[in-house]
């Protein structure tokens, strides 16, 4: 069976940059993506902090351009979901529902997905008013009232985006200060359609067949009340897509992969990049940098171990 030099798992900015560098290095590389390349950037309306794109770039366009850039240098991209990673001597074996793929080295760039709140009503009302993507679902809430949960960059960006459609956006945050970057926090606080409900937490999302209200608790005095709304948007962080690697690679408590500064994981020959890694800052520019570094480190590993 053929063994690739490098198998890249995941097609977000980390994986696509790893692929671009591998293709330019003329490695025998393949990138595997379970859906279509792009990652979480695909659900971002405008990316404002990609250096050089002064006016901002749509997440969709940026993903497309990254994919086309890697394809231009000959990267092979295949649609496959990996279910298992095992080791066979110096090689790594990746299992998919239709067979195995072998690589001398692997870059894991499987990204992350929105974290759930974990309150009653949330699961039941997904797609019926509960959403994790304002960019995707915002247009359904024209002239309606929506509630957003969270205080980070995603919550701030998405709350502002939702004001394009909704008549009123409540932003419920568990503290009295936003975590979001200064410029994003300013936009929230200066937007007349957004009301921030400070130091409050959700207890339940209510509704028969669609969201009708959220039950909130004020942390100051413990008062509980129902806030009527048409949509509940959850932006309380991310959870990594690393379940299939549990027990194989070292991870932190939340399942983010632990890497050294050159993107080596705990398993020799396996590198990681992007939002699935344990780190301080999850941004497109960081994922891209880690993708480049992971491929370079993989090349060095191949020279030392396999050649
Ligand atoms: P995040 O930075 O982890 O923020 C999560 C927010 O949700 C925090 O404000 C947190 O409150 C709150 N939260 C967490 N669990 C909660 C719970 N159970 N109930 C209520 N609130 C809860 O996540 P994120 O905003 O999704 O961002 C993820 C990463 O992507 C970050 O590194 C971020 O910088 C990056 N990102 C960047 C951009 C950009 O650069 N434009 C855009 C989007 C995302 P506390 O503040 O109290 O912890």
Distance between the termini: 19 Å
Total DSSP E strands: 19
**Could you give the order of the helices and strands?**
EHEEEHEEEEEEHEHEHEEEEEEEH
Please, how many helices?
Answer: 6
The portion of residues assigned to helices is: 10-25%
Uncertain segments of ≥5 residues (pLDDT<50)?
A: none
CATH topology of the largest domain, anyone? FAD/NAD(P)-binding domain
Determine the mean pLDDT. 96
The distinct bound ligands, ions and cofactors come out as: NADP nicotinamide-adenine-dinucleotide phosphate
Kindly provide the radius of gyration, computed on alpha-carbon positions and rounded to a whole number of angstroms: 21 Å
Molecular shape: elongated
The CATH architecture designation of the largest domain is 3-Layer(bba) Sandwich
Beta-strand content estimate: 25-35%
CATH class of the largest domain: Alpha Beta
Structural class call reads alpha/beta
Superfamily (CATH H level) name of the largest domain? FAD/NAD(P)-binding domain
Query: What does the main sheet amount to?
Result: 7 strands, mixed
Number of domains: 2
Q: Overview of this structure, please?
A:
The chain has 6 helices and 19 strands. By secondary structure, the chain is of the alpha/beta class. The protein folds into 2 domains: 179 residues, FAD/NAD(P)-binding domain; 119 residues, 3-Layer(bba) Sandwich (FAD/NAD(P)-binding domain), CATH 3.50.50.60. Strands 1, 2, 5, 6, 7, 8 and 19 form a 7-stranded mixed sheet that branches. Strands 10-17-11-12-13 form a 5-stranded parallel sheet, covered by helices on one side. Helix 1 packs across helix 6 and helix 4 packs parallel to helix 5. Bound molecules: NADP nicotinamide-adenine-dinucleotide phosphate. NADP nicotinamide-adenine-dinucleotide phosphate binds next to helix 4.
């Amino acid at each position: 069976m053929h063994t690739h030099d490098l198998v890249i798992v995941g097609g977000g900015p980390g994986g696509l940059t790893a692929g671009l560098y591998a293709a330019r290095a003329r490695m025998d590389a393949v990138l595997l993506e379970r859906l279509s390349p792009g990652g979480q950037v695909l659900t971002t309306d405008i990316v404002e902090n990609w250096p050089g794109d002064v006016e901002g770039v749509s997440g969709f366009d940026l993903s497309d351009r990254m994919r086309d850039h890697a394809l231009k240098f000959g990267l092979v991209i295949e649609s496959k979901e990996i279910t298992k990673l095992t080791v066979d001597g110096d090689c790594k074996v990746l299992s998919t529902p239709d067979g195995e793929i072998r690589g001398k080295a692997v870059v894991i760039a499987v990204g992350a997905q929105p974290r759930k709140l974990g309150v009653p009503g949330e699961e039941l009302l997904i797609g019926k008013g509960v959403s994790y993507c304002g960019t995707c679902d915002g247009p359904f809430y024209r002239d309606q009232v929506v509630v957003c949960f969270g205080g980070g960059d995603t919550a701030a960006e998405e709350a502002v985006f939702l004001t394009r459609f909704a008549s009123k956006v409540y932003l419920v945050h568990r503290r009295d200060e936003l975590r979001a970057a200064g410029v994003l926090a300013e936009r929230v606080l200066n937007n007349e359609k957004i009301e921030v409900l400070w130091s409050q937490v959700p207890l339940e999302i209510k509704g028969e067949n669609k969201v009708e209200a959220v039950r909130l608790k004020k942390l100051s005095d413990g008062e509980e009340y129902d806030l009527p709304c048409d949509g509940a948007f959850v932006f309380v962080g991310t959870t990594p897509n690393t379940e299939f690697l549990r027990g194989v690679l070292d991870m932190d408590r939340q399942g983010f992969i632990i890497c050294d500064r050159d993107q080596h994981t705990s398993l020799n020959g396996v590198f990681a990049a992007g939002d699935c890694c344990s780190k301080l800052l999850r941004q497109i520019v960081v994922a891209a940098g880690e993708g480049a570094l992971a491929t370079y480190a993989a090349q060095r590993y191949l020279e030392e171990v396999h050649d």
